[in-house]
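2024-03-11 09:14:02 DEBUG pipeline.ingest accepted 1 chain
2024-03-11 09:14:02 DEBUG pipeline.ingest length=1109
2024-03-11 09:14:03 DEBUG pipeline.predict start
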Amino acid sequence: MARLFSPRPPPSEDLFYETYYSLSQQYPLLLLLLVIVLFGLLALLAVAWASGRELASDPGFLTTMLCGLGGFSLLLGLASREQRLQRWTRPLSGLVWAALLALGHGFLFTGGVVSAWDQVSFFLFVIFTVYAMLPLGMRDAAAAGLASSLSHLLVLGLYLGPQPDSQPALLPQSPPQPSQRPIQLHTIAPRPQGPAPSEADPSAQLAANAVLFLCGNVAGAYHKALMERALRATFREALSSLHSRRRLDTEKKHQEHLLLSILPAYLAREMKAEIMARLQAGQGSRPESTNNFHSLYVKRHQGVSVLYADIVGFTRLASECSPKELVLMLNELFGKFDQIAKEHECMRIKILGDCYYCVSGLPLSLPDHAINCVRMGLDMCRAIRKLRAATGVDINMRVGVHSGSVLCGVIGLQKWQYDVWSHDVTLANHMEASGMPGRVHITGATLALLAGAYAVEDAAMEHGDPYLRELGEPTYLVIDPRAKEEDEKGTAGGLLSSLEGPKMRPSLLMTRYLESWGAAKPFAHLSHVESPVSTSTPLPEKALSSFSPQWSLDRSRTPRGLDDELDTGDAKFFQVIEQLNSQKQWKQSEDFNPLTLYFREKEMEKEYRLSALPAFKYYAACTFLVFFSNFIIQMLVTNRPPALTITYSITFLLFFLLLFVCFSEHLTKCVLKGPKMLHWLPTLSVLVATRPGLRVALGTATILLIFSMAITSLVFLPAASNCPFRAPNVSSTASNLSWELPGSLPLISVPYSMHCCVLGFLSCSLFLHMSFELKLLLLLLWLAASCSLFLHSHAWLSDCLIARLYLGTLDSRPGVLKEPKLMGAISFFIFFFTLLVLARQNEYYCRLDFLWKKKLRQEQEETETMENLTRLLLENVLPAHVAPQFIGQNRRNEDLYHQSYECVCVLFASVPDFKEFYSESSINHEGLECLRLLNEIIADFDELLSKPKFSGVEKIKTICSTYMAATGLNATSGQDAQQDAEQSCSHLGTMVEFAVALGSKLDVINKHSFNNFRLRVGLNHGPVVAGVIGAQKPQYDIWGNTVNVASRMESTGVLGKIQVTEETACALQSLGYTCYSRGIIKVKGKGQLCTYFLNTDLTRTGPPSATLG
């Protein structure tokens, strides 16, 4: 991460979220807020005109409305440019808030007398929208919300302060006593513009206002916190998804590299598809096909040339090398040969010790395949000549080439290596073995394809190979046209050795010279793999560094504008962020229906609706706060009749029961200490969180309960419309006129019932995950109920209140802003549309959050599958204990991987009879069916490796029908030297058991294939060097005299026997095995050796075991 944020630290992820993402999501809400306010102002004008009021007679109202329309239209124009909004987010949001606040205060002092309940709903709207719809942070929104609340309370508190001449309260009073004379009211011509002739002390109403505003602030802050949490979670999930996509792309690329380092592209695709199918199906790693045969990935190719090359003198040189020098020398040499092969369109097939062979004409046919192989052979000889001339080390190159047809592909289940088989391949191998050092030895078939491109000379056959003598065909040596030029120019023999001094070892001279070739390290493309366990989701470096507050948020232009500045990863980052834009909900989408927001996939829609919701308990707790606010308000503005108190007591009980059910899991410890019959109670909250039907029922019941309690006070008001303030002799009625019906509530409770209804609307928005259609239904139901109550059945209460307020005036009809029923209805509609917009937005965010979580899970699963596939592929090339060296952040590519071991047991097991069995004819599809049987043999051998008792056996490679394996390679370097001989070589017994098991497997195959193959096994143990070489096709291998002797033990062995050296026989006897001497035999390169056969009738001196062969 330090590299990512240097040298100039770009904005952090949180800053990017605050400055761009959060703003881009709230931008549509700001526009909708301004549109709602403008339509609300137009609705006020329309209602005033429709109600027959003369607008010209109320210049204050008209001026306020026109200023409001002009100001908000200007703000809408400013906000319509997203670029301006991004530059001036806080100032513009502050202007919108200030304009709303100014409009509210203008409404307070326009249209009639000022009352304590005036414009409470409008200020509640301002408070809630500051949190829910303005692009402000939580602190700024809280400051604006509290400032809005205090401004209303302070202005009315100062304006409606205690006045000695104020009128009595609008409370039900006892009828006047006969001795009292009513005070006469005198009519006043102009409409009063001053404090309402209400109660002597407005503190109770102001306290009710404070409770309303406090509830509005808490509900708004809660809504904003939920939305912020959802937005931030979706944002992080999108970044995690982007990170997973990058990891997935990286893993796919690495898999391609890995597969292509083993197999040609056409074969890699086929095998990868099968491996993916196995991983996704959760099957084992070695399933068989439906015809009971293992899959065979072998094809026949004609018109190819095969090159075999061997480094003469390398075995003696390698014996003088340290492990690091040996691996470096091999990697540099074969890395150079790989470069030459690439230049001449040849494909390296395999490395066998110091033998290198490749093919031209695979996988695509090439007309010049023979010339390509000859050129490559000449360049290889030339490279070795330069090496010899520079170092003075006596090594040379022997090359053989033959042209014909091959069967190519992969056999077995583990340690895949692309290989070729055919009689032509065998001939090419013998061409190399019988060739001359420093020359390219070719057959007549290859010479015919050269078409005179190179001069040749006949090869001397006196010392020729018996296989070639049996064929009786002439062979040729290619004359290198540049050999004479090099001889004429001359090279200072042993130039490097003369500079370094005569005392330097030849192997060190070789190593120093080869380092100058600069061959690539194995698996260099995996050196920067991101750690699979990394949980960070860094933002793209260029994307962050190029971000600035002046950067345009016009995302329709962003992808084109960024192409020149951002790389592909950054472009993908902005594409992902663009998919989260809330404006997308109105456009066609592959995931959503733009009208209903339903997922297009029915299964996903079902999964979304059935998903658990642990946060439901917090929704219920917040709605209880709204209910409690309604209760306090009712207690403040009413005379608290017993029936109302009893009703609220019952409702409190229901709410406490709901909260207990929702939070019962937090009471587990307490409940478990009680009677066992109550131990089931904590499961109630789990049921509520996991059962959608139960949640919907409880949520709907809660909202309806709040709605019902908001209008309960109307039940205790007179049902008949007999307002005493509208009597004919009202002008001469006493100002302390009381209600005639005992037990009724004060008229002042009517506007506060409307305000409680508004809180009921807000409670609907607190259920963030409630479906949009259910919220729409509940809001419509409550809108219809509220309007029918206050505009129809109980409209007379509003008229009676107005009559009481304007008692004794000529014009008892106030402006539309001062008439409770009209202003209440307009408030209901404004809150209805506002909450509808928020409900739609909430629904979109909830579904988007669910969608991205699902995408993230799917991508993580796919990434995990890809990582498993990469691991399987890598472990199919390398041993399990070596593979981590090349994966992720563990990769250390500064040095080549090499390891020396003191005691490793090496096995060579061959099926010599297969050479006679193999034939090429039309009956067996030119040898393909023969290879199918070999594939079964090798695959059955590989299946043994999955058994726990053979977990220490490591397959190295297969060479035609020879199987090479080793034990002791998973021991820590140097560990063997610290252990005694018995412990250090205890794995020899595992290898013997494995050899016996191979023989048993071959017997089973013989039984089913009606053959009589027998196994020939050679074992040896001792020190070896292990390492990984080859950049284009990395290969794990082991080298050393132990390996060479083990190979000779097999090649000089006897069918059905396990031949071992004298040292290995002694070690096995110490482990309880029986060996008997074969005698002294001649071993190529080793002279006379005394060898032993292992008695396989008994494994150790105990229970009988299967006889080998």
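2024-03-11 09:14:41 DEBUG pipeline.report The mean pLDDT is 76.
2024-03-11 09:14:41 DEBUG pipeline.predict end
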